[in-house]
Amino acid sequence: MSKPLNVGLIGCGFMGRTHSNAYRKVYSFFKPELKPALKAICDVSADKAKAFADTWGYESVETDWKKLLARKDIDIVDICTPNNTHREIAMAAAAAGKMIICEKPLAMNTAEGQEMVDAVEKAGVPNLVSFNYRRVPAVTLAKKLIDEGRLGKIFHYRAVFLQDWTISSDLPQGGDALWRLDAKVAGSGVTGDLLAHCIDTALWLNGSIRSVTAMTETFIKERKHNITGKVEKVNIDDACAFLARFSNGSLATFESTRYARGHKALYTFEINGEKASIAWDLHDLHRLGYFDHRDDSIVRGWRSIHVTDGDQPYMGKWWVPGLQIGYEHSFVHQVADFLEGVATGRPASPTFRDALETQKVCDAVLESARSGVWVDV
Amino acid sequence: MSKPLNVGLIGCGFMGRTHSNAYRKVYSFFKPELKPALKAICDVSADKAKAFADTWGYESVETDWKKLLARKDIDIVDICTPNNTHREIAMAAAAAGKMIICEKPLAMNTAEGQEMVDAVEKAGVPNLVSFNYRRVPAVTLAKKLIDEGRLGKIFHYRAVFLQDWTISSDLPQGGDALWRLDAKVAGSGVTGDLLAHCIDTALWLNGSIRSVTAMTETFIKERKHNITGKVEKVNIDDACAFLARFSNGSLATFESTRYARGHKALYTFEINGEKASIAWDLHDLHRLGYFDHRDDSIVRGWRSIHVTDGDQPYMGKWWVPGLQIGYEHSFVHQVADFLEGVATGRPASPTFRDALETQKVCDAVLESARSGVWVDV
Amino acid sequence: MSKPLNVGLIGCGFMGRTHSNAYRKVYSFFKPELKPALKAICDVSADKAKAFADTWGYESVETDWKKLLARKDIDIVDICTPNNTHREIAMAAAAAGKMIICEKPLAMNTAEGQEMVDAVEKAGVPNLVSFNYRRVPAVTLAKKLIDEGRLGKIFHYRAVFLQDWTISSDLPQGGDALWRLDAKVAGSGVTGDLLAHCIDTALWLNGSIRSVTAMTETFIKERKHNITGKVEKVNIDDACAFLARFSNGSLATFESTRYARGHKALYTFEINGEKASIAWDLHDLHRLGYFDHRDDSIVRGWRSIHVTDGDQPYMGKWWVPGLQIGYEHSFVHQVADFLEGVATGRPASPTFRDALETQKVCDAVLESARSGVWVDV
Amino acid sequence: MSKPLNVGLIGCGFMGRTHSNAYRKVYSFFKPELKPALKAICDVSADKAKAFADTWGYESVETDWKKLLARKDIDIVDICTPNNTHREIAMAAAAAGKMIICEKPLAMNTAEGQEMVDAVEKAGVPNLVSFNYRRVPAVTLAKKLIDEGRLGKIFHYRAVFLQDWTISSDLPQGGDALWRLDAKVAGSGVTGDLLAHCIDTALWLNGSIRSVTAMTETFIKERKHNITGKVEKVNIDDACAFLARFSNGSLATFESTRYARGHKALYTFEINGEKASIAWDLHDLHRLGYFDHRDDSIVRGWRSIHVTDGDQPYMGKWWVPGLQIGYEHSFVHQVADFLEGVATGRPASPTFRDALETQKVCDAVLESARSGVWVDV
Questions:
Q1: Which residue of D has its CA nearest to A303?
Q2: What is the pLDDT of residues D159-184, one digit of tens each?
Q3: Whole-model pTM above 0.90?
Q4: Between the CA of residue B297 and those of A204, D193, D310, D321, what are the distances in Å?
Q5: What's the complex ipTM?
Q6: What domains can be seen in chain A, in order of their start residue?
Q7: Among partner residues B21, B318, B326, which is closest to A324 by beta-carbon distance?
């Protein structure tokens, strides 16, 4: 018999939707011991919050997150607000003894992130940062293959996250869905928004990064700001690329941009090991590329693995072989793993502490882009 | 303000799951005027039904479908039972004035199907057969492109549905998930199970089929039967291929098998028109292949359209460009369209009458496979 | 030390070019014991023949093939003329004791083909029909994998050869490059021109075909004839599809058309065996698709084998791994194998006798298309 | 009527083969006004030279390149020897008034390259460096699309050249085919061997590079040396990656390695412009990826252009649409263009002067890898 766990979610944007959908689905597929209940939705706009509650079936509505945190009937606080609010809410939630799921990136910078780690660890509350791509089954399978030693010594890692939605200079910055273009709210541009995903996966799959050298660019220097109504300087990085050396001796290239015409959300990574290589691509997320040098030489080739079988990560919970799942399912897996971590006392990763490592790499990248020299992480 | 519509679903198998998931999701994404409520689940096994009710949140449980049909609080009867039960349940549901959603294929044969069509039309109840692949966004986009005349005159249609799950002779037939191998329950093998999907899509996209010539094969002649416990003759078609002529003058090849090693559920179709061609593939269902001869000759090529944009069918309701949906979403779209059809009085297709056309083609195919000559549909 | 072998080639069209290129290249890469010398080119047009001799380095020119055959200094007669001339030239060449390479299809029909087989066998001259696709390295590798038993029992074979160059009704028929549209010269349309390739490969890879049922269509009924200048009825098949049963119990579908918009020369085949499957595609001819069910289940997938390694068929003679060859090389391999067959007394396949089997299937296909019933080969 | 032009080629290795094949083929397909004749082959090994002459049809043999240069009957000197010999031979050939084709990279470093440029320009002899990938038709098509303005402003360029042939530590260095691993002979590792190709293409397609930051790695520190027989330090770069800023404001990442398991010779580049993007891949060199944002939004997607049509670069000279060419043909195109440049007085690119720009970037990359800071080119 499952025990209920009450969720209070803050933020009615895109991420609020993905998390709400995950809470609604997880029980039907994963039968967790702890069953999430959509208790309260919180947004500064009461109208938005009410509409969101109707859409997703939240039982109640709040407009002040402090009130939400004060409620005794809330077990999990889920932070889906813009980056510049993460620290304050998370610190308060920890102090209130709530479990916390926080959207990525963890914080505006490493200093903030460190405070947050200290807070949740002092409070002893379960905590997770939503780097959801780890839980795409093909990516989880990649982790499994590496951990089994199938790749052998790793020589190379390369990752890109390419988008093309900000190419038009008519696009304004700030407010609503466009806060990602406003450095005061987002902290950085593609580095925190997109590369943070690439870095999280990389650290998970390939261990720690030792040092980086980077460049950033802001192609469109000024945009109208939605809130002030004025044309203002754009302070985010539109594009960022960096070279890296991992502690295991492998070399890496990372790149992200919102000016790669033809790519909507093309997150790809490839890892080359002594014995085998793997490749993955968010645009066909249900597939994993795999090359195994141990195959007979005349029939060696990259395999395109359709990750939909019951013995592949998470897939036994869904449909039948051959039938693909999509983007949203990575969030369902995240909730399932978080709940299992709470139930078993073996916390799911990435915790705040894990996510702080990604934050440190992001900070080193941005510092290198300013200084022009290699920066140790 | 949405009005509730109470669902009573019969059958706790794979299709019961896909439909239940769709009812649970449709409101959050499509906000239909009529909002489905999971009122009752019915299965001959009370244990299964109870577990299913817990999993999906059904309010009540029945073990006799006749009782379900007798309930006043049920608006929609959803038939997810094996093929040999469709007719009886659907006839009774129509007589009870219920709206009906029925899994495909409509019936065991055309004669049964005709009775069912007559019954629902006489009763005047909304009815739909669950040929869900029409509502994969890429397939719906294909329909749109054809209807806009982008392909011009059609010359060729080809479709396959390839699986490999019955190659082992150790696999038994009959009972539970394996009723599809038992001709008494399934009616036919791949023809009704898989080719019916291909035919439904083809009739929708390319109009009626005039005549066919076919061959079938049963590769493994005997299998242990799960219910009798004895080795029994296998009476289904393991594989079926046919040639067809459409009324519009185009030629077609269709093939299905469960012995195509390497393909889990590879439903593909391609349509060649005078001006353009399209291709689709269930293993990467979020993409559509498109070739347009009107492109400048030096840059002409097959386009791989990542069908995840807001202006592509259904996709405005989901996430953001670049983030793919999966198999299950086709059922959500089906429910959304059915509900809109009920609300507006413009019924969603395929109705029982539409599905009867597919049944007729299936029957002609099986007859041709027996007789060795061309059979008019 | 290589011995020279003098080639007399008849026909300055497209195939004359591919064969001439092959003769010029074979020695540098394959070092055959017998080294072909371009002795004479023959064409009814003296101007064409002279220009061709200059282009390719032929030593002499003839305008009457009978004179060519009468020359003592010609060892190999290579027939690259339209189909309706194959029989007469080949019979005479055999009578003159020449080795013969003949373009495909062997003949206008089985009766002609039988005469040709009898003639070359009576004369005891080496003979080969130019079904060049067997000698694309990826296709030869497919043969090797099948012969090694890697696929196990074969269940399915499917092949298509799709083009789109005759869709315009403005295209005339007859004469020069367009004799392929003139049934009097070509014998048939896509059946002899394109399906003959598919059938040859199929017989080689999968054994004999027992019976077929077919349909053909001529989409554009009349075209201007280049020679008569008049609009005339089109008598070739624009498209042809057939179902087949092989002697080994496997089922097959074959299709060819020149009305498949978007495909220039898309010859593909796929073979599904109990243990493994293979797939190939002329548009990327240097790759072979391979799925092996014996791979670990979690990393099973279709492999894309880049057939450019030294241990793959023919490739040790060319460049280095990763560097692809193209269409023309299949003809070089054909000449190399023919020369080796002559030198060793173990004739290269397909001989005229082998090619007669393809002719029989073509005839059965066309007969079935007329009669509407299954025809035994 | 074509005039003969006598070729003297130095070096019987892999590049000697590709160039010889090109000279033998160019006339049959391109009918240049100047027709190359294979006059002399030169190698320090008389046995190798004789065998090579037999294989390719060279009329004479030399073992001392100075003698070759002294011959009056030699018009073109083609330098296919290891990198450390380019300068001396080229300087002497220029002094002797010969036309020069030189394998890439131009020189061991910029200083050498500058001398060579000065020499050929002073001598006024036609000169070309063999960056053959420019003349793969798909790459030439990319150039044409960019020059037509189809991409608009360029934001991003990324290129990799990935191989996996040196992963085994048993592989020795030095001598024969393995001089590429010996820094004294090769100058550098992947930077000069592979990245030089990427840089040449990039400069041609996207203009000059302003500055770079780089890292290199030698994964296997010692290897047996084939000539000395001793285990010696490996001084080449096994891998090199760099970030770059182009003069046009675009950002770039470049990477090359011989430790990318699964890639034999995967040279890829992608260019993202405001309006369109292009992508190419040496493993399928006959295709070009193209995305055009101006396409109707619902059917927008990456096009896979099969570059085999008569109106695409060079392809009108080869076979018919749909039939691919391969690696070797890029060299045929190079010779054809060189000969046309000589005939018309409009020299084909890249001349020594053009190739010097690539050398400068290579030097800047290696310097940055040593210094750890950005280096201006």
A1: D262
A2: 999 999 999 999 999 988 899 999 99
A3: yes
A4: 46, 35, 10, 12
A5: 0.97
A6: 3-131 (3.40.50.720), 134-376 (3.30.360.10)
A7: B326
